[in-house]
Structures are given as C-alpha cells and as structure tokens.
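ARCHIVE CARD
CATEGORY: sequence design from structure
SOURCE FIELD: tokenized fold
FIELD CONTENT:
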C-alpha cells in the first residue's frame, strides 16, 4: 500500500525532527510521503521542517500557516495535499511510535478507517479524566463505535475521506471524521497502540478547547442531520 503521512506541528521545535526521523525509518522501502504542517509556530518549528524537507526532497513536503489556524484547519490542509491512496495522521509531539502504523495496516483489507486506542495513556490525570468524559459523551451523541475517538493515530482510505466535507474547527475534527464515516456506512476498526510520554515541550490543549469542543457537539448534531443520506431518513 502507499501512504501520505500528515503531521501537524505547533511550537514543536524540540520534537518534530525526532518524529520525522522515526517516520522516515518507517517509510524506508515503502511508497509514501510525509507532509509536515507548521501551524503558525512562534518557535523554530518552521525552520526545522524546512531543513528536513531539503534533506529529503520528494519524500517530505512542508506547508506553512502564517498564523495559528488551529488543529482542524491544519489537518484539512494536509488531507487536501495528500496524493496517496491511504492517509495516516498523528501528532508532532513524539507520543506515538510510527512503527506501530503496521498494527493499523493489518486491517486495511476490510476496513476504511482504522483507529488506534491508547492502551495506557501517558498523560496527566486531568487529561485522562477529561478524555474519558469526552469519549463517553461523543460515543453517546454520535454512536461512534470506538473507545478513544480523539486518539491522533488514524489510518484512512483517502477516497472514503473525500466523500464527505469536514467543516469543524479545533479538536472536534476527530469526532466529525468518525461520525461522518459511520453515517456513510464505512467500515471502522480499532486496535490497541502504545502511548509514550512527551519527549519535551507541552501540550497545546487548554481548558478553553474543552469548552469549544463541547459547544461544537451541538453544531455537529445539526451537521449530521443536514448531511444524513436520503436512504437513512
């Protein structure tokens, strides 16, 4: 299979090179590309990814946002730029092992969207509890058949992903993708993956993002009603 790997990065100058090197090692001998997206970082993330791209022309591409556009906008730009049959995305903070993409690939023969779930999450207690509450609410509201909706370790068929519009903002994008995939009748599978502590830096998620995501649930409910297939009405 061939694959476009999408990596959003915001103020990840201390992590992004290591993450990219790991991804290059995973892609060795495979047909694929890495798209690094600097989302208006205020540190040297942009310089680091430009340097990586110059060292690996044809393998790494860069996208730069002049200002911080947010997680959803960053992923959408990556999805639009992807040229291969499968799209994988993860974060630029080094908390996932790229070699475990192979675990997701085991399901590509009979699934359209393959989602990792963190079997032992290496985050603060506050984030772990908030994530559990978030997942319970999202699964209940949108009937999404996975336990770790916001896990940013996902592999998707690009042709399936492009069959619906992604319009959410912020961190709701994971929920929207899976809710619309489920609504369209696409096959979703999940599998356990390893979660690692951050190598350095700190998360860009803030309490305000939780509030924005919860209010976004109301928008997504309306959006799903609007886009519901006629046969399902």
């Amino acid at each position: 299979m061939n694959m476009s790997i999408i990596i959003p990065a915001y103020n990840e100058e201390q992590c992004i090179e290591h993450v990219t090197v790991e991804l290059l090692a995973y892609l060795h001998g495979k047909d694929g590309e890495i798209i690094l997206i600097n989302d208006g970082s205020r540190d040297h993330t942009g310089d680091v990814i430009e340097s990586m791209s110059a060292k690996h022309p044809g393998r790494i591409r860069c996208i730069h946002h002049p200002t911080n556009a947010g997680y959803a906008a960053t992923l959408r730009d990556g999805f639009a730029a992807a040229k291969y049959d499968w799209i994988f995305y993860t974060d630029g903070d080094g908390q996932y092992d790229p070699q475990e993409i192979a675990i997701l690939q085991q399901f590509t023969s009979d699934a359209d969207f393959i989602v990792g779930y963190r079997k032992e999450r290496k985050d603060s207690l506050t984030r772990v509890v908030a994530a559990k509450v978030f997942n319970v609410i999202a699964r209940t509201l949108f009937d999404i058949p996975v336990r770790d909706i916001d896990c940013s370790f996902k592999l998707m068929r690009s042709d399936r992903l492009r069959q619906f519009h992604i319009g959410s903002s912020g961190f709701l994008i994971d929920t929207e993708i899976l809710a619309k995939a489920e609504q369209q009748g696409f096959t979703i599978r999940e599998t356990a993956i390893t979660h690692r502590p951050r190598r350095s830096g700190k998360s860009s998620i803030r309490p305000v993002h939780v509030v924005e995501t919860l209010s976004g649930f109301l928008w997504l409910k309306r959006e799903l009603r609007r886009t519901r297939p006629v046969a399902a009405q």
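CARD ANNOTATION: The mean pLDDT is 91. The CA atoms of residues 18 and 94 lie 7 Å apart.
SHELF: design records, drawer C
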